[in-house]
């Protein structure tokens, strides 16, 4: 994504603005939601976005260290820990929050070991996201094992299992839905399933129709607190 596509705040405000936030994610829909929420609910006047680690470092070089960087764990140029480590070394005063739609065991620990100050799952509620951002801005950390409420939510999520059949979906549609919930775009879903992008688009349309949703954001909200079991 072009960095200006996710930009809030006047261009002249960027240089040396210690209170700007930067979102590093290659999923345009996710980026748009995070950027807008940081402005509307988290107290940031200026929020910017880039799609990968190289663009992140280049942006900071040009604009100064941000107050907060939010990084997707899985970027097109690799996993986030190396970028987190580089940011931790290069911008020691910047708060680093890693997020992911992946339920893989230990990725929050990898983020913390690399120097992140917090980790949040993309399926968390907007209110929890705001609490995490506020905690980091106060100089605190945000990890599930350090926050009893978040840990309880994660445990309950693991217990609420649903199958594609429960949602009226075929197994293949369930596989597509699982990747949608992780924030993957159609092209990456097509590559993972070894099908055409058009086939994925047709599956996505069917999933939205069967779930009564108009877009992916609504699907994620609808299935919040549930884990899809294939």
Explain how this protein is built.
With 230 residues, this protein is an alpha/beta fold. The protein is 49% helix and 13% strand. The chain contains 11 helices and 9 strands. It has helices at 11-14, 28-41, 53-63, 81-90, 107-114, 126-137, 148-159, 171-181, 186-193, 197-211, 216-222; strands at 21-24, 47-50, 68-72, 74-75, 78-79, 95-100, 118-121, 161-162, 227-228. The strands form 3 sheets. Strands 2-1-3-6-7 form a 5-stranded parallel β-sheet, sandwiched between helices. A two-stranded antiparallel ribbon has the order 4-5. Strands 8-9 form a two-stranded parallel ribbon. A hairpin with a 2-residue loop joins β4 and β5 (78-79). It starts with 10 loop residues before the first helix and ends with a strand. The relative contact order is 0.11. Mean pLDDT is 83; it is low at 1-7, 9-17 and 154-159.
What is the secondary structure topology, with strand pairs?
Layout: H1 11-14, E1 21-24, H2 28-41, E2 47-50, H3 53-63, E3 68-72, E4 74-75, E5 78-79, H4 81-90, E6 95-100, H5 107-114, E7 118-121, H6 126-137, H7 148-159, E8 161-162, H8 171-181, H9 186-193, H10 197-211, H11 216-222, E9 227-228
Parallel strand pairs: 1-2, 1-3, 3-6, 6-7, 8-9
Antiparallel strand pairs: 4-5
Helix pairs in contact: 4-5, 8-10, 9-10
């Amino acid at each position: 994504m072009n960095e200006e596509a996710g930009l809030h705040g006047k261009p002249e405000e960027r240089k040396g603005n210690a209170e700007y936030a930067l979102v590093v994610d290659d999923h345009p829909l996710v980026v748009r939601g995070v950027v807008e929420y940081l402005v509307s609910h988290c107290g940031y006047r200026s929020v910017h976005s880039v799609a990968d680690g190289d663009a992140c470092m280049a942006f900071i070089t040009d604009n100064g260290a941000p107050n907060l960087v939010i990084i997707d764990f899985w970027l097109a140029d690799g996993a986030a820990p190396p970028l987190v480590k580089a940011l931790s070394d290069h911008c020691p005063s910047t708060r680093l929050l890693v997020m992911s739609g992946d339920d893989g065991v230990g990725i929050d620990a990898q983020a913390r070991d690399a120097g992140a100050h917090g980790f949040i799952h993309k399926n968390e509620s907007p209110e929890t996201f705001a609490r995490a951002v506020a905690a980091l801005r106060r100089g605190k950390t945000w990890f599930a094992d350090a926050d009893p409420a978040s840990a309880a939510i994660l445990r309950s999520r693991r217990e609420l299992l649903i199958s594609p059949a429960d949602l009226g979906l075929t197994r293949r549609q369930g596989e597509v839905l699982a990747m949608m919930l992780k924030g993957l775009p159609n092209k990456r879903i097509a590559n993972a399933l070894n099908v055409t992008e058009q086939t994925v688009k047709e599956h996505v349309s069917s999933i939205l129709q069967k779930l009564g949703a108009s877009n992916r954001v609504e699907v994620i909200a609808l299935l919040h607190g549930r884990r899809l079991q294939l």
